[in-house]
């Protein structure tokens, strides 16, 4: 009797295992079978107030990019240093989960590069999603804490390893090994981006040569002779090939023949290599950040990664309105692309806010102070996008056109133009209810969200948040949103 039950239990377990394997394989194949229709780039923009946050851009052809969310950050880090750089987009093989991992670093806060490299964060910032548009709160993932003398954890990437079924996370850490302190690439394994295995040295160029930026792309068809290709900023932009993520890597070459390096041979000095496979064809782009000249990313393309001599420069590209700094590109299915564009793709009209009492004057920012002026130059200082309120439905916020991610907010009942810092206080201070104009119902007034007894008004041409008690106040608190 017990033997029969044992045999039956084993049979049930085998059938269940077969069904599970079939289900997982089918899900992965179904995801892989969906054609890619677009591209999503995650990036940061620089060391200014909100430059070290998460930005997204979209492309249909992989060369011409449009900023999403009106050029403003899509996600803000509220953990660690409260800034992120070098974001990497990661999709699960089944296409049912996504992660963004990024460097926990904000130079704009006043941190020096030396402090950041030697006494910086040992953690990465992680966001998680099941649909690519609704993201978890950011969390910290300590990846470098187990490295003796680790100074930082920079430029993270991750790739699924089919041999083990988990993910290999790799990043740069500045630490001393064999008496030499420099940046090397380390890796650790994870299944959920919540816990990681111990850090292991991955790439060490030897001697005194450091390496910070490296990124791997998979070529399942083996075009070029390898399944995986790796581009690294190690003095050159070195391209290597391998048939396994953690196997041996063969140097294919570098880009010095194109006048491109990471400083070793001068020329066009670049960093942040970022791979992208073109949809529907065996062709790849390697995007390179021309940081030394401040010109932003440029693509070089190849249909065969087996030799760096196959790369060619391109001029038929555009990067949108914001400067793109070190990030990553994800190929999008039609369903993913539809969700992303529905959430962040619509362009909010550009408006000006006209004074009721001084109709030649418009609300404008000047050195981040806010007032009403005539003949504003440049006119972009008086242009805003009236977007859904940061703090609540049925409200509005005013986002600057020439400083995306900056909003009109009251501070001590005075108005300033400030970068969204992700706090509830900021959201409340930058949110208003649009009501019928206090002096004319055909115009508009704006009631404070967190001080509902106060309204936006001008006083001696300065914008303030005040209680309104008389006819003068009602007139000063009345505006028209114009195009």
Automatic annotation (TrEMBL):
It comes from the Bacteria. It holds the Pfam family AbfB. Residues 1-26 form the signal peptide. The keyword Signal applies. Residues 352-481 form the Alpha-L-arabinofuranosidase B arabinose-binding domain. Keywords: Signal. Transmembrane segments: none annotated. This is 1,4-beta-xylanase. It comes from Saccharothrix yanglingensis. The lineage of its organism: Bacteria, Bacillati, Actinomycetota, Actinomycetes, Pseudonocardiales.
């Amino acid at each position: 009797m017990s033997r029969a039950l044992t045999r039956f239990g084993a049979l049930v377990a085998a059938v269940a295992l077969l069904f599970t394997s079939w289900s997982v394989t089918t899900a992965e194949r179904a995801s892989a079978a969906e054609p890619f229709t677009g591209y999503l780039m995650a990036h940061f923009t620089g060391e200014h107030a909100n430059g070290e946050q998460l930005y997204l851009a979209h492309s249909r052809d992989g060369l011409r990019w449009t900023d999403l969310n009106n050029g403003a950050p899509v996600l803000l880090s509220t953990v660690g240093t409260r800034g992120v750089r070098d974001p990497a987009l990661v999709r699960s093989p089944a296409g049912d989960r996504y992660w963004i991992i990024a460097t926990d670093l904000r130079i704009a806060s006043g941190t020096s590069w030396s402090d950041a490299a030697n006494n910086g964060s040992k953690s990465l910032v992680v966001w998680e999603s099941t649909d690519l548009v609704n993201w978890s709160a950011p969390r910290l993932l300590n990846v470098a804490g187990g490295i003796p003398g680790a100074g930082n954890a920079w430029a993270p990437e991750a790739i699924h390893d089919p041999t083990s079924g988990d993910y290999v996370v790799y990043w740069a850490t500045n630490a001393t090994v064999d008496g030499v302190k420099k940046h090397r690439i380390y890796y650790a394994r994870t299944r959920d981006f919540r816990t990681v295995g111990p850090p292991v040295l991955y790439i060490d160029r030897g001697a005194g040569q450091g390496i910070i930026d490296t990124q791997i792309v998979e070529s399942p068809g083996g075009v070029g002779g390898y399944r995986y290709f790796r581009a690294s900023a190690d003095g050159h932009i070195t391209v290597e090939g391998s048939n396994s993520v953690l196997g041996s890597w063969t140097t294919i070459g570098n880009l010095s023949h194109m006048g491109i390096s990471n400083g070793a041979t001068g020329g066009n000095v670049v960093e942040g290599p970022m791979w992208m496979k073109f949809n529907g064809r065996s062709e790849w782009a390697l995007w390179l950040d021309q940081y030394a000249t401040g010109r932003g990313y440029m693509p070089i393309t190849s249909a065969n990664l087996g030799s760096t001599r196959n790369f060619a420069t391109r001029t038929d590209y555009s990067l949108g309105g914001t400067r793109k700094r070190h990030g990553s590109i994800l190929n999008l299915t039609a369903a993913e692309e539809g969700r992303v564009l529905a959430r962040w793709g619509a362009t909010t009209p550009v408006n000006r806010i006209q004074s009721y009492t001084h109709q030649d004057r418009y609300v404008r920012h000047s050195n981040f102070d806010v007032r009403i002026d005539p003949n504003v130059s440049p006119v972009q200082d008086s242009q805003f996008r009236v977007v859904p309120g940061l703090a609540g439905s049925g409200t509005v916020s005013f986002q600057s056109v020439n400083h995306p991610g900056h909003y009109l907010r009251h501070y001590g009942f005075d108005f300033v133009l400030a970068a969204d810092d992700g706090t509830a206080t900021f959201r409340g201070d930058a949110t208003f209810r649009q009501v019928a104009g206090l002096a004319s119902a055909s115009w508009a007034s704006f009631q404070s969200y967190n001080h509902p007894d106060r309204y936006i008004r001008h006083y001696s041409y300065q914008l303030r948040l005040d209680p309104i008690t008389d006819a003068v106040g009602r007139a000063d608190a009345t505006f028209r949103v114009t195009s």
